[in-house]
Amino acid sequence: MNILSVNKFYWNKGGSEAVFFGEKELLENNGHTVIPFSMKSGNNLPSVYSEYFVENVDYDSRKLTDKLSAASKIIYSFDARNKIKLLLDANQIDIAHFHIFQHQISPSVFGPLRKRNIPIVLTLHDLKPMCPNYKMYVNGHTCEKCKGKRFYHCFLNSCTKGSRLNSLINTAEMYLHYALGYYQSVDKYIAVSHFFERKMIEFGFKREQISYIPNFIDIEEYPESPNDNNYVVYFGRLSYEKGVDTLIRAAQLCPDIPVVIIGTGPDEQMLKKIVEENNISNIEFTGYKQGSELKQLISNSSFTVLPSVVYENCPMGILESFALGKAVIGSAIGGIPELINPSVDGLTYTAGDSDGLAAQMQTLWENTNTRREMGREGRKKIAKDFTPKSHYTKLA
């Protein structure tokens, strides 16, 4: 089968891209041809199909002309539509599988696919079909005001980066895309968490239109580590939705627990400033790490923390931690509680509650044997429920 796989980034930017590339490899290993469609970037991995990739869109430019051009492409990208036509003319496609594509690519590509009767599958890495800012989080709290297609709340509350203009663009985008039937025309949605599956149904999508297929991880690439070098790890993007500030406040309450924060992001300097201004001496920022270096840092840790304050989906960080035999403390929000069995392979706490997080960190810190046993249980869970084989079986 020839599968068109669509994702706006063709490099390992984050967890969604890890799933995108992992699934691409999995399908190819099972005899399928995977043809990528993405956006041009100097960070991209090589691809023989890169000539069909859309032009890079600069959403950070301050020029008014650039902003207007970018806004029009968010709503409807003629470049993406024309490029996908060329790709389809040159290649036989049996099915199109979309990952994260909004804004830089846009649903303008659905039309050419529909004209050729190519089925469309969309994996829900985020909440975009229901929420203009795709997170259901604004002004420090979760928000579901757009339920019932009341997308105007995005503009009224400046939900997109606190900007009225950006929020207006995203509001118009949602109304137009629904008016054109884009999200209604998806043949199958893949929810990687039961939480996202339930949200889709709550927001009016048909139950039979959605399949639950969680993310997967190849445990053979994550050797179990007996190491426990007495430090705690957070690894991921440094942005407000990840709740790293909650972890910093919790670490301040646990001065005896060294905390290593791995990653970069828009809030990096702000988070470092919080640490500096409060004289918190038990936190270390390492910057961006990947590959074997990242795995080693996780392998040598005592346990990991996922302090998100938004509706997480099926975080790869939890799967990777479990695969390496590490217990996880996660906020009880979104799909996180589906992955962590409290007191068996990790602990949970109320999202945003630094006192609660500190208490759970102290519990695991003081019980070495308990956290190691939790890590072993987490690894067993991965080997049983989150394997490439089980993922492919459900996908096929």
Task: Tell me about this structure.
The strands form three sheets. The protein has a six-stranded parallel β-sheet. It has a six-stranded parallel β-sheet with strand order 11-10-9-12-13-14, with helices on both faces. It is globular, with a radius of gyration of 21 Å. It contains 15 helices and 14 strands. By secondary structure, it is an alpha/beta fold.
What fraction strand? 5-15%
Overall shape: it is globular
User: At the first level of CATH, what is the class of the largest domain?
Assistant: Alpha Beta
Specify the biggest β-sheet.
Answer: 6 strands, parallel
Structural class: alpha/beta
Number of helices, counting only DSSP H or I runs of 4 residues or more: 15
Number of domains: 2
Task: Summarize the SSE layout with pairings.
Blueprint: E1 2-6, H1 15-29, E2 33-37, H2 64-75, H3 78-90, E3 95-98, H4 110-115, E4 120-124, E5 137-138, E6 141-142, H5 152-156, H6 164-179, E7 188-191, H7 194-202, E8 210-212, E9 232-235, H8 244-253, E10 259-262, H9 268-277, E11 283-287, H10 291-299, E12 303-306, H11 316-323, E13 328-331, H12 336-339, E14 346-349, H13 354-365, H14 368-385, H15 388-395
Parallel strand pairs: 1-2, 1-3, 3-4, 4-7, 7-8, 9-10, 9-12, 10-11, 12-13, 13-14
Antiparallel strand pairs: 5-6
Helix pairs in contact: 8-13, 11-14
